[in-house]
Amino acid sequence: MECALCSSIAAGSGISVNSDWILQIPGGRAPLAGWVILTPRRHRRRLDDLSESEAKTLGTLLTTTSQSVVKFTEATRTYTANWAENTPHVHFHIVPRLPSLPPKRLGWDVFQMMSDQSTRPPTAVQEQTLSSIAAHVTALHKQYEETVR
Predict the structure, then answer these.
(1) CA within 13 Å, CB half, 45
(2) What pTM, to 2 d.p., does this model score?
């Protein structure tokens, strides 16, 4: 079975935030601007498949990605989830928890928005938001790396 994330990475989708991890828009077009996925560049089916390098940077990247999503959206916080069930490649959804979300779309129910194609923000808005988030994550991660050396 071909991995959809590996195929999209090979096609140049997403923005590299370090040598191991990439930020992407899930499915190429998410229900909310700022909804991103953090995924390892190499195919990893499970968390325990991560290399030492991937594992060492994961916590920092999840934190800085969450901070960046809040910074570049109106989010009050983020939701973060990893199932790797439908797409058997480790990836984390970082979802902006916007004040405008209806009560029926809070918590896990926000993922029901993935099946509603009618409410997608324009692709250009999503790509600009992703670009801003990725640049901020990369800068924060470099700062962190310099402090731990």
Answers:
(1) 2
(2) 0.92
